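Possible regression after last week's pipeline update?

I re-ran a chain I had predicted before the update to compare outputs. Posting the input and the new output here so someone can diff against the archived version. Not blocking, just want to make sure nothing changed silently.
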Amino acid sequence: MRSLQRMATVVLIGTLDTKGQEYDYLRQRLREQGVGVLLVDVGVLGQPLARPDIAREEVATAAGSDLAALAAAGDRGAAMEAMGRGAAEIVKRLYSEGRLDGVLAVGGSSNSSIAARAMRELPVGVPKLIVSTLASGDTRPYVGASDVTMMYSVVDIAGINQISERILTNAAGAIAGMVKAKPPPAGARKPLVGATMFGVTTPCVTRARERLEELGYEVLVFHATGTGGQSMEALVKAGFLAGVLDVTTTELADELVGGVLSAGPERLEAAGAAGIPQVVSLGALDMVNFGPMATVPAQFAGRNLYVHNPTVTLMRTTPEECRELGRIIGRKLSAARGPTALFIPLRGVSAIDVEGKPFYDPEADQGLLAGLRETLAPSVEVHELHTDINDPAFAEAMANRLHEMIEEGR
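New output (post-update):
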């Protein structure tokens, strides 16, 4: 937290060989807002068109690279990757030294990628803003699981004109307001618990959340859509959470089979690595997610497909896929450094994996259990309940056990 005796400082990250005029304009607008500015140059080729506070040579060195070698190699992709790593190291250092209260960048795909790489290294809550030509499209590669804000530039970042000066002035005002905003007063705060939810596990998570709130926790619910799982695990790594109620591990199915809601191969590892209590279940591992029916890959045409809504098509996981998912989960949980419990609902892992519903498949569910038994270590508690996942008794049992584990840790 910044000292009340010093001016809030915004760090600007820019390729000054192509965007020097725009960054000079931003620097002026920020100073008019009563905000300090540090300008970091991440350009590689041409001469900087504005005077930086942190030169490109220092950024390259922070990445373990040499600027002259990057320029001579002529590999634009490798140079951008290196400058992104260097910028990340620079902003982490500035933040640790108390010289960074927010970060702002403007540009196209290259500058946006470099700046986003750096911003994602900062803790949640540190203001982060990118004005980009890419902001009206798929922003996931830039935002990831962080709290990066993206603003569409309307016109390309190519000089100061009647449109760009308005957009850039708005951006300067926005980040200045963010860094000068006072945080909420620190009072008695409830411990935070993260929980994962999908539409087909909502009754379970709702009841578990209610029970945890009765026990004195504040529950953060994450929609298990890829970025949801990543966001929860980012908060784990940042030290925000006292425990995790990972009811809905469905993102692992998308990672394995090729669905559109993967959270990446490291999903279900953060809590274990951090050593915090985690209670885990098998929510929605009966399904892989795709977009509208027409977008389902051709190789899956003969599979059990279910139209969840006009924009989401679900595909039932096979016994073989479920067995491999069980092995994956078993290995991940067995590697945990902290207390870990696995709750298994023997009568269905989602609202549509129960008798009479479209994804009811006892053979696939048995495959999931078989895979778990192959790889689970004795250190992992296993609770098998003769209910489906959305039974209130199942939800309460998970919540109560997480509370006990957190209390035991205290």
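Follow-up from reviewer: compared with the archived run. The first helix runs from residue 16 to 32. Marking as no regression found.
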